[in-house]
Amino acid sequence: MKKLLTLTLLSAFLFMQVAAQTGAITNISVQQRTDGSGLLDVLFSINGEENSYRIYLEASLDDGQTYTAIDPAFLTGADGLFLPDSIHHIVWDGYGSFPDIYSEESILKVIAIHVIGGGVPCPGMPFFTDDRDNKTYHTVLIGEQCWMKENLNFVSDNSWCFEDNEVWCDLYGSLYSWDEAMAGAPSSNAIPSGVQGVCPAGWHLPGNAEWEALQAYLVDVEEYPVSVAGNALKSCRQINSPLGGECDTDLHPRWDEALFNPEDDPGDLNYGTDDFGFSALPAGARGYTGMWFELGQSAAWWTATQSDGTTAHRWMLDLNQGTFNQHSPYKDNGLSVRCVKD
After folding, report:
1. What are residue 142's DSSP bridge partners?
2. pLDDT above 90 for 165
3. Nearest 5 degrees, angle CA 25-CA 6-CA 113?
4. Taking the CB of the first residue and of the last residue of the chain, which one, N or C, has fewer CB atoms within 10 A?
5. Which residue range is the domain that position 86 belongs to?
């Protein structure tokens, strides 16, 4: 996964999503221009099994202790999609991005991320690492909200893996009771909620109003009908997805095959299109009695807002429905968590 460059302390990495195939960045060449401009020519190719990738660069100015995402304004040729088995050329303005501390001893990360579906990463933060357990999450910007692209998978005192199998946590994230998701914080419906809860530092558990804002963006701004707005949030990974290609898969993580009558209007078939990069996957749930439900069929996330003493608001997507709905189950149920950037 990591290939060390031979030029000064520069290095390049390939980071892939859980759903992506293993690949490598190869044929790397990094050259510091000698005209005093501070520009670096970064040449590389991608040896991967996916059709296309997005490229991001990070730099360390403290000998690899910390890395900072490089502002795209100081990169030339880094936008768009990158194909495997081709030579690519990106120019980095090192002095422009770090005018006071840049040096030729900086360490550079070249990151290739394969993305299925639409969406754009949050500016300056295509992904981040949770310092508590070193797990990495990708980000997606939807309207003015910066969301985690995956469900949280932080092991806490009262979290579960579906059927107590860690494989499902790795693929779909952990399940939490509402009290565990809140980490002792009081209910909030503010924007932002102000509840860090079980989320990493700098992120928070969104309140019901923040989920309503997400739905309003889909319906009012992007003008999706309420009846299919939820499909735009679902990952396209599904058994027999009509989109075909890499969306059509029976490999986890994915949605089960949608149930419908072939004689019905094909428009009644609700399948994920992932138009915004939210990439919702059906982690199922743990009932308050300890029963397991609907892996592959439903996705449900806690909000930071309670309904009453025993129930709290959740938002849910279902295999055979295109809507994006709010419900209020018992707080002792085990549901997924998505965090929003503070």
Report:
1. 145
2. yes
3. 20
4. N
5. 2-113
Average pLDDT of 1-10? 27
The total number of structural domains that make up the chain:
2
Q: Do 34 and 95 sit in the same domain of this protein?
A: yes
Closest CA to 283 of 146, 160, 181, 138: 160
Closest residue by Cα to residue 111 from 127, 99, 132: 127
Q: Give yes or no: residues 181 and 231 share one domain.
A: yes
Asked whether residue 177 falls in the same domain as residue 250, the answer is yes
What pLDDT is stored for residue 36 in this prediction?
79
- Residue 258 burial (CB count, 10 A): 20
Spell 217-244 as b/e; 16+ CB within 10 A means b: bbeeeeebeeebbbbbbbbbbbeebebe
Cβ atoms within 10 Å of 261's Cβ, excluding its own: 8
212-261, pLDDT tens digit by residue? 999 999 999 999 999 899 999 999 999 999 888 889 999 999 999 987 65
Contact 218, 322 (CB under 8 A): no
d(CA 332, CA 290): 9
Residue finishing a domain among 85, 113, 141: 113
Residue 301 tokens read as 């996330």
Residue 326 in contact with residue 139, Cβ under 8 Å? no
> Distance between CA 140 and CA 275 in Å, rounded?
11
Radius of gyration of the chain (CA): 21
Its sign, for the CA torsion 73, 79, 85, 89, is negative
Question: What CATH code is carried by the domain that includes residue 64?
Answer: 2.60.40
| Angstrom distance (rounded) from CA 56 to CA 71 | 9
> Is residue 120 domain-resident?
no
The tokens of 266 are what? 């094909």
Give dist(CA 74, CA 79) in Å, integer: 12
Q: Is residue 15 part of a domain?
A: yes
If asked whether residues 170 and 28 sit together in one domain, one would say no
Residue 108 sits in the same domain as residue 145? no
